[in-house]
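Submission sheet (multi-component)
Chains listed below:
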Amino acid sequence: MVFKTDIQIAREADKKPIQEIGAKLGISSENLVPYGHDKAKVSQSFINSVQDRKDGKLILVTAINPTPAGEGKTTTTVGLGDGLNRIGKNAAICIREASLGPNFGMKGGAAGGGYAQIIPMEDMNLHFTGDFHAITSAHNLLSAMIDNHIYWGNDLEIDTRRVVWRRVVDMNDRALRQITASLGGVSNGFPREAGFDITVASEVMAILCLAKNLEDLQERLGAMIVAYRRDRTPVYCRDIKADGAMTVLLKDAMQPNLVQTLENNPAFVHGGPFANIAHGCNSVIATTTALKLADYVVTEAGFGADLGAEKFLNIKCRKAGLSPSVVVVVATVRAMKMNGGVAKADLGVEDVQAVQNGCANLGRHVENLKSFGVPVIVAINHFVTDTEAEVQAIKDYVAAQGAEAILSRHWELGSEGSADLATRVAEIADSDEANFAPIYPDAMPLFEKVKVVAQKIYRADAVLADQKILNQLKDWEDQGYGHLPVCMAKTQYSFSTDPELRGAPTGFNVPVREVRLSAGAGFIVVICGEIMTMPGLPRVPSAENIKLNADGDIEGLF
Amino acid sequence: MVFKTDIQIAREADKKPIQEIGAKLGISSENLVPYGHDKAKVSQSFINSVQDRKDGKLILVTAINPTPAGEGKTTTTVGLGDGLNRIGKNAAICIREASLGPNFGMKGGAAGGGYAQIIPMEDMNLHFTGDFHAITSAHNLLSAMIDNHIYWGNDLEIDTRRVVWRRVVDMNDRALRQITASLGGVSNGFPREAGFDITVASEVMAILCLAKNLEDLQERLGAMIVAYRRDRTPVYCRDIKADGAMTVLLKDAMQPNLVQTLENNPAFVHGGPFANIAHGCNSVIATTTALKLADYVVTEAGFGADLGAEKFLNIKCRKAGLSPSVVVVVATVRAMKMNGGVAKADLGVEDVQAVQNGCANLGRHVENLKSFGVPVIVAINHFVTDTEAEVQAIKDYVAAQGAEAILSRHWELGSEGSADLATRVAEIADSDEANFAPIYPDAMPLFEKVKVVAQKIYRADAVLADQKILNQLKDWEDQGYGHLPVCMAKTQYSFSTDPELRGAPTGFNVPVREVRLSAGAGFIVVICGEIMTMPGLPRVPSAENIKLNADGDIEGLF
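Outcome: structure written.
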């Protein structure tokens, strides 16, 4: 069998004008701010006008721990959204925007795959509607204003060794990770160590994704800590007086982007915070707006459920007052086999036993998600090589757990293949069974929150942290940050902090290496491993092969 | 009398949907790529489809040397465009885009002023259609790929001390002027000195503004010199294999932006190269497209005529095969007075003698411009404080020179005030009197070209240059760059290199401090003074007062 590539399918799509897509959600064309004919932002004034409406049902799509086999979480999110529309429901999709820079290292990717994709794929991998450029500008304006403040006399008494606000660029550029800035003599300022992160790692990105509206955005930007004085007291963004201008730079970016699936159903693609040093979900404003406009909103969280769904539920839902009606856990036969010990090269061979062995990983995620009080269903994202016996093995395992697994063939068939899944998901959502609550209260001490996540979700024996880290958490509690949730940063490949430990490991500890306060975003980042905030390019970057061909089509990006 | 501010007038404008503006030029809405409701790009396919049409008449607006009194060159460009439409002509305007970063230092500005403006003003001072962000990305992709090439083994044998390709950011950030990059150990690369310029100073910007189409764009990008080897042989962008991906990043930015005047006439706002280290005109593709769609195209060049018009005529027109039908030189009574020795504080007092004395500056520009074989007319941009006698003094001076000066009151009255000017300009353009030619041929040696400009335009006695510079020019001639035009970089405030020398100075020399090859843009930059490629922020940056007010309007940007 020969399959079309994602980009071939995407280019053949019967794309509708974005105004037609908006109309499906009751958005008139005056309330859509178009960016080309197939992308638009939903105007702030329209968003304000629908705030009194009733919310639709929120459906979270998450997954097992990612494996090199691929799980298809976004593909399933899109397939489920199309499936719901197919069975006559008014449904919208909410996913994250892609970062520009990394596409020039490794190839860019579709939003979804096969016949379950969001388009226009090229634009979404390039400048899209300029949101990330706006974030880059706002971030770097603050950076320039900090150094400018120091240059003109440093009235705020910033300790130039303790400027924690770096610069950002949406490019994989390892040469900028660590630099010495302000060289060249008197007119260029006071030399100091500095550096750049990739734009998605910016706290401004996390804030844009958590802010309820423009006022909240500005408030949070102002609350960001940018430096410390010699006495260790913090200097805030609002002390630099950058928060107003940053808000002006971000006002368009705050409006959610509307695009469409291959089947012309509405999809919001907005925000893209790093899933490790931030919470890794699409924007609150896109999700809350979608909930006002659609009866069902399908969204996803980054990485596996231990990391992405945990932060979606404990951070995004808590902060935004969201309450999911059902959680869909995506699994595949191939990924179960890898969790069961099969090497990638051997995934094509039927191996029911390996599938059964690997299901322990899925089972633990299902169990964890239930602990948030939300009904859970498993979606088996079908690969054409899967055998019936293998699929049945997953279904049996999940049934034995008291849950349900449904095969979905959206990749191959579009909504025709996901109608069954959509039907069950809608039934569960409509049953109002959900009784969602985060798994720790605001009032719990910070280190206790870490322990709850590590022990209840990861199933670690203990959390290990130096006295220095414990003292730091205590200091923040004393400064009034004790109510914040914790934003865990650990490997996505395992429940543990060892990426090699697949399945459902036990008998391990979680060491905390570092903690960081994101005072504007409103969480404490708890780092349990290496964190790379500026990627590098590979030996042969994909950029070398990216070009326009004679027809004006982009080659080499996918 | 109380006058409204530019932003008040702009916000009160009766703005039309951009599709209506496009229709005036025969562009259907499918061929407009909208960015919001009041901005659009003209699609590349439409541009390709009109290449066989006859060109309209090109009208260049330039000015005397700028003074703190203000001349209103853009205001006159807009007023003339509106005036031509008022008298029943099909006319379009072409101007440059504004840079984002500097607005956060000093206040941003209108495109034009009073009742002769282009809107939407807020967007044009912020992200607009993202062109400059695209240029920043393309530029920095190349930067990252250069350091990445060095990191992975440096097969091209780049001398890391001689990487001439810097990075850019569209922000006034003096701390980035000079940095040490790639610090932090083995994984971050090989430490070297580096730095950032502001985006408008990028050679990519100059190329975008000179490229005829996407193929030409990629060709020119590939030809840029990014570094030298130890043996001084150049390393090109195409050696790094970045030109294809850069072209992909720039493909949307290459499409000209269409907006409107307060009177709903079409205006192309596209490209914004630095007027000193580049040629300082809007894009060739916007100008050539406008000429296919309108009978009259009014455009402007940066700074005074000695710098901006000289480069427009010798570089842009030469490269793009453009031929202006008439040149309009903007002068004001106030600026004539300043050239005549009056201090800014005293400009409100009638002083006919000072006006007469200052006219020498205007007179020399008129004479210079005639030497290009193009008819010249003077537009007196009226200020409400001008007296009749002062205006008459300019008219008389110009008449004595065998030319004509027309009073234009577009700032106060819009097209009603510029109809006379428009009528005469159209008559001259229609007379086909022009017989344009650049003032030096391609084949002239490089240093001779510099001498021609310095002696014929500036009226310098001699050009002074070290043997080192002469040798450098000779080397480039040997390498095949001898046919390039020279891009002069000197103060805009005087014909000489001394900004204090107003009027029409004589008896001075022009010292050349440095020469640079912009092999992709296709010119030799000849630097006759300080050049600042990265501005800094002032003690109190305007950003501190920029914010959204309760109505969602931007405050403090203007």
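Remark: Chain A touches chain B through 73 residues (CB under 8 Å).
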